[in-house]
Amino acid sequence: MYTSLWNTRRPPWYTYAPSNGPGGGIYKSTDGGTTWKPLTNGLPADGFGRSGIAIAPSSPRIVYAVIDAKEGGLYRSADAGATWMKTTGDTRVWGRGWYFEKVAVDPKNPDIVYVPNVGIQRSKDGGKTFGTWAMRGSPGGDDYHQLWINPVDPNVMIAASDQGAIVSLNGTADTPEWSSWLNQSIAQIYHVSADYRFPYWVTGAQQDSGAVAVRTRGKFGQISMRDWEPICAGGESGDTAADPLHPGVLYGGTVSRCNLDLNGDSVNIPPPPGPEGPRRDWTQPLVFSRADPRALYYADQYLYKTTDGGATWARISEDLTRPDPGVPPNLDEAAAAVVDRNGKRGVIYTIAPSPLLLPMVWIGTDDGQIQLTLDDGRKWENVTPTAVSAWSRVTMIEASHSRFLEAYAAVDRHQLEDFGPHIYRTRDGGKTWQEIVRGLPKDGYVHAIEEDPKRPGLLFAGTERAVFVSFDDGDTWQSLQLNLPVTSMRDLEIHGDDLVLATFGRGFWIIDGIAALRQASGDVAQGDAFLFKPGDAVAAIEGNDNGTPLQKDEPQAENAPSGACIDYYLNAAPQGPVTIEIIDATGQPVRTYSSADQPQPASSAAPQTVSVLWGRTPETISTAAGMHRWTWNLRRGATGAGGAIGASGAGATGATGATGATGAGAPGAQGGRGRGAGRGGGGGGFGRGGGPAVAPGTYTVKLTVNGKSYTQPLVVVADPRLSGAQR
Predict the structure, then answer these.
(1) Which domain holds residue 319?
(2) 20 to 30 A Cα–Cα from 226, which one of 374, 527, 570, 651?
(3) Number of structural domains, the chain?
């Protein structure tokens, strides 16, 4: 057996992780791992860092090692590691060794060797020379980390890159063909910004794949690759900021501006440098003010503001980072000595303009400071909590939407070997802070904190593993994970009635309509049932697939519910049926649904010329205890007012008790979106059933359980894309 060791410790200041500390090397065991012998003959000794090893299956005495070192390169042994020879120092093979260093050998030919790096490099002469062109997938992408070769047929390969896993069936060809990774929902999104078009798009920078935007309601009945677009600002790691006054205009990165409808016309508009050259982390903050939609803020170590789209910038601070944050005690000497362009200094990492008080702005730094101005930068006050030490990364500050002196700060200390959650709350402008983490797991540091603009004290938090909700201003937290994958939850944004999430590894997710969360309280569970007041329903013009659904292996996600989302809670299973009625302003019934309605099973349908996969699974109103969602498709009953249910209705969300959230749904197209339950309308396959559409106006929803009725008003509004008489 062979193994490789290397020493990696990443300093908290911005730099790539050094992997050349003491203790690195390659070792061999011939007794099942009981004892190990270092292999050194012919291998580099100075700065031995990350390395990868591969044994030639057809000739096991031939061993390859790709090594990051002062004399880095690809090394080959023909005597089972006793001696080594450097075959190449080509940096395409071993460069950026802290990030790569894997190697694979053809199972039939010991002289054909592959080394994944930015691309996959291939040699046919035992590593002496490598081809002019790298192997990449189609589409390509950057940064390949693993290559598996079928031991029986070397044409069959699986490559893993930052974009996903791809398969080739002719991998030994000069230009092999590869499958696509676009049907894998694994996009790594740093931050999210929803724009102001209808339907709105969510945007974000995507690691190693460029900034992207995805439409939240697809044009063809679902969200597909037609709705997933590379965009012109943000790069692979920057913030994106949608212009609230000019829908379709986006700002991103450090800073540029472009028009999403054109996906071009990109203009670089960075602020002029301050007294010292700009220091930057991998992601620098860029945000619009909610109090003044003209005001855009950007920061490096200084804070800048523009109110004219970047034509002019004002620097409204001095350096707001720690002047000497020092070196954390958990770093060894080698790691502490490594510096990059920032030296050992920090940057502003988050900006939070107050949505209530125009000149009030909070900032947090990646070296552990929180500062506040009440006068647009003329005077700054350091309001850092005493518990926040140097190099505690203030990942996000959220200024309260209801109390101007209140704010919340998420702090990440994992690079100080503290992996616990840290969220702080102030109610007096930073004079005092309280840590508010009761209910959060002890092993999930926090990336994001967001307050609902409509319900004071309704908070959402994204950690390294999950999403949580608090209904009491952070005093207690509970899971809002529902059907989300376990991954890094990097950013949250509330857009209208929707909760939007950016994950680092599983793309964008959305809960459509959080009206139930805004009304959740202890009163919900007091009676047999509770009917939540629905949010406004948009009578959106629905596109469809024109009789040609996407193939199941195509990337796709469900559209937002088409109609009004009706959320209700049942304390226990009722004695009789549950009914939902829609009543118009004159008191006349428009549509009636009942849990007693039995949809026609697919087996009893009339003979069809299409596959059963083209139809929706019939659903009925749930009578189980817990939270549920039903969607009315804004149509009258198929047989007139109060007509019977059609073949498709929305199903229940995950039941999570009286304060349970409506559920997020299935993962979508490449980094696509999750969805709240509530699929399709209340009648007809594909949501096309029922009678004529209702007119915009005010309606009443009536829920009847155990003979008792509960009512709530419902407002239906026209599609904002329509004008005048079209509405």
Answers:
(1) 275-519
(2) 651
(3) 4
Residues 250 and 262: their CA atoms lie apart, in Å, by 11
Q: Tell me whether strands 348-353 and 314-315 are parallel, antiparallel or unpaired.
A: unpaired
CA angle at residue 390 from 386 to 393, to 5 degrees? Answer: 95
Asked if 70 and 80 touch (Cβ cutoff 8 Å), the reply is no
Q: Measuring CA to CA, how many Å separate 397 from each of 93, 103, 182, 356, 550?
A: 42, 43, 34, 15, 42
Write the DSSP symbol of residue 211: -
pLDDT at 36 over 90: yes
CA-nearest of 99, 92, 193 to 135 is 92
Asked if pLDDT for residue 304 goes beyond 50, the answer is yes
Contact 629, 701 (CB under 8 A): no
Alpha carbon 612 to its chain's center: 33
> How many residues are recorded in the chain?
727
What is the pLDDT averaged over residues 624-643? 79
In a domain, 163, yes or no: yes
Do residues 662 and 567 make contact, with C-beta atoms less than 8 angstroms apart?
yes
Read off the amino acid at residue 540: A
Same domain, 133 and 82: yes
Side-chain half-sphere CA neighbours of 629 within 13 A: 34
Q: What is the pLDDT of residues 268-289, one digit of tens each?
A: 999 999 999 999 999 999 999 9
Give me the CATH number covering residue 306.
Answer: 2.130.10.10
Q: What integer is the mean pLDDT of 591-612?
A: 80
Sheet with strand 370-373: strands edge to edge: 348-353, 361-365, 370-373, 381-382
* 375 and 429 belong to one structural domain: yes
- Per-chain mean pLDDT for the chain: 89
Q: Is 468 helix (H, G, I), strand (E, B) or coil?
A: strand
Question: Which one of 245, 270, 295 terminates a domain?
Answer: 270
Q: What does the alpha-carbon distance between residue 42 and residue 23 come to, in Å, rounded to a whole number? A: 17
Please list the helix, strand and coil fractions of the chain in percent, rounded to the nearest 5, in that order: 5, 30, 65
Which tokens is 661 given? 């959230």
Q: pLDDT band at residue 308, thresholds of 50, 70 and 90?
A: very high
Q: Are 636 and 539 in contact (CB under 8 A)?
A: no
Residue with more model confidence, 57 or 185: 57
